């Protein structure tokens, strides 16, 4: 029996290094005990039970040169943070399997793969909740102001997420206390602390007013639907969140405010009220990274969310990310993006001042050899992703939208649009926003040789220009 002692619950590097050596030696999974921290499992290392233990797993120690894919490493890195006690053992079994059959990583039906993907998914979700729902409360200590938050993660995600909070709150002194350990940042150095309890964290304070104001602003039916928000905010987090004290009154007031918005929209069709600032978009984009509303997330590299100013006057909607966008995580950066950029310049529209997004946020493709060939999203996928587009629109509240291509037009209008017939004109969406329709730039990349490419391009740019110019006529 071999005992591997990992330094901590989240000691992925320790697991990786030990797993390499053990796999190199051909040690079977059932002959390994993965032990974390203390010496309790040394019982198993008793000589009567077999070989002596590996003293400790150190990154790089006697690591055999095994080659595994980035995809496996990424998956394992997340799964290793799960609270499942068997995770290190399961990962080792998977490692041995993949060394033999690398293609098993793509086998969605494989029960071990499914289990480990499930672990990784739970960990990603837990991290996402931590980003969204940690709430700091202000305290005074010897060094001055300190912001302290209490959070209860389901998994061992604390250290892995430290960078997120350091980046975001670099200039604050803060502590995040959890039952699994604590993080303390003093503006320059990060320190770890022992597990804490809820009573170590403070109650209410002035910082809460900021959160409450922020949540009241985004809890606006014209921006973020209450149901959507409640769904994304599991009840177990409510008790830590000052703004949830507002939830009953927000729900009660939602209908009234909705009425008021409609009335206001009647009198002032495209007026903007109450911008909620960029944070609402940032949160939404983070949530979208976890989107599982349709199966497209699975083969895609990542969710490619919209980008641009949170208060843009123009929102432009494309179809879906292509191969380049899927890898870069950004909209319109590939060949269609180059045509789009040229047409925007020709139309006199500043891309940096528009909000640009896609009707579908994941790349849909068919693998062909090493290539990934674009596949058109179906109506179910457009419908599933419409939820995100509507939320983007509710936050940005553009004065007009431009749908590029049939998929975008369908997403925005909710009906089938024949672009050839309706391009160059606008339809009015139920909330009063004009929606201009034009071709998708990739249409220009697929023109038959006999087509007049310059004329087609000029027509596309003219569609964009006409839409943008109509802003002057919208009061
Ligand atoms: N096509 C789109 O519709 N969107 C992109 O982001 C890229 C290509």
TrEMBL record:
Biological process according to GO: DNA repair
Domain Uracil-DNA glycosylase-like: start-end pairs: 305-465
Alphabetized UniProt keyword annotations: 4Fe-4S, DNA damage, DNA repair, Hydrolase, Iron, Iron-sulfur, Metal-binding
Pfam family, one: UDG
GO molecular function, one term: 4 iron, 4 sulfur cluster binding
NCBIfam families listed in its UniProt record: SAM_7_link_chp, UDG_fam_dom
Similarity section: Belongs to the uracil-DNA glycosylase (UDG) superfamily. Type 4 (UDGa) family.
Protein name in the entry: Type-4 uracil-DNA glycosylase
Organism of derivation: Novosphingobium pentaromativorans
């Amino acid at each position: 029996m071999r005992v591997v002692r990992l330094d901590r619950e989240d000691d992925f590097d320790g697991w990786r290094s030990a797993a390499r050596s053990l796999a190199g030696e051909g040690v079977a999974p059932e002959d390994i005990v993965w032990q974390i921290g203390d010496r309790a499992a040394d019982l198993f290392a008793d000589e009567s039970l077999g070989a002596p233990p590996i003293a400790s797993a150190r990154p790089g120690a006697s690591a055999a040169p095994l080659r595994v894919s980035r995809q496996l490493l990424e998956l394992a890195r997340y799964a290793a943070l799960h609270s499942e006690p068997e995770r290190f053992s399961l990962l080792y079994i998977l490692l041995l399997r993949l060394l033999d059959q690398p293609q098993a990583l793509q086998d969605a039906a494989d029960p071990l793969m499914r289990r480990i993907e499930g672990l990784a998914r739970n960990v990603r979700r837990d991290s996402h909740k931590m980003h969204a729902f940690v709430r700091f409360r202000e305290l005074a200590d010897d060094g001055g102001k300190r912001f302290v938050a209490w959070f209860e993660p389901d998994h061992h995600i604390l250290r892995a997420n430290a960078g997120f909070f350091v980046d975001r709150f670099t200039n604050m002194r803060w502590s995040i206390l959890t039952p699994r350990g604590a993080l303390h940042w003093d503006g320059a150095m990060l320190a770890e602390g022992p597990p804490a309890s809820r009573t170590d964290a403070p109650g209410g304070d002035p910082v809460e007013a900021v959160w409450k104001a922020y949540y009241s602003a985004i809890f606006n039916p014209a921006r973020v639907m209450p149901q959507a928000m409640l769904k994304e905010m599991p009840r177990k987090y409510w008790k830590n969140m000052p703004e949830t004290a507002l939830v009953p009154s927000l729900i009660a007031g939602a209908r009234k405010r909705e009425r008021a918005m409609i009335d206001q929209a009647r009198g002032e069709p495209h007026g903007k009220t109450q911008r909620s600032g960029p944070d609402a978009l940032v949160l939404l984009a983070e949530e979208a990274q976890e989107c599982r509303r349709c199966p497209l997330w699975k083969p895609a590299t990542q969710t490619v969310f919209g980008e641009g100013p949170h208060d843009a006057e123009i929102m432009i909607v494309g179809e879906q990310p292509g191969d380049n966008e899927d890898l870069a995580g950004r909209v319109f950066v590939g060949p269609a993006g180059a045509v789009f950029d040229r047409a925007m310049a020709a139309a006199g529209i500043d891309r940096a001042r528009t909000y640009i997004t896609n009707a579908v946020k994941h790349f849909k493709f068919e693998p062909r050899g090493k290539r990934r060939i674009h596949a058109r999203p179906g109506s179910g996928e457009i419908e599933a992703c419409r939820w995100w587009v509507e939320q983007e629109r509710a936050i940005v509240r553009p004065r007009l939208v431009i749908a590029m291509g049939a998929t975008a037009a369908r997403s925005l209008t909710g009906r089938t649009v024949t672009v050839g017939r309706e391009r160059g004109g606008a339809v009015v969406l139920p909330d009063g926003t004009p929606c201009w329709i034009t071709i998708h730039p990739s249409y220009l990349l697929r023109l038959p040789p006999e087509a007049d490419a310059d004329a087609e391009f000029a027509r596309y740019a003219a569609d964009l220009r006409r839409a943008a110019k109509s802003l002057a006529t919208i009061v």
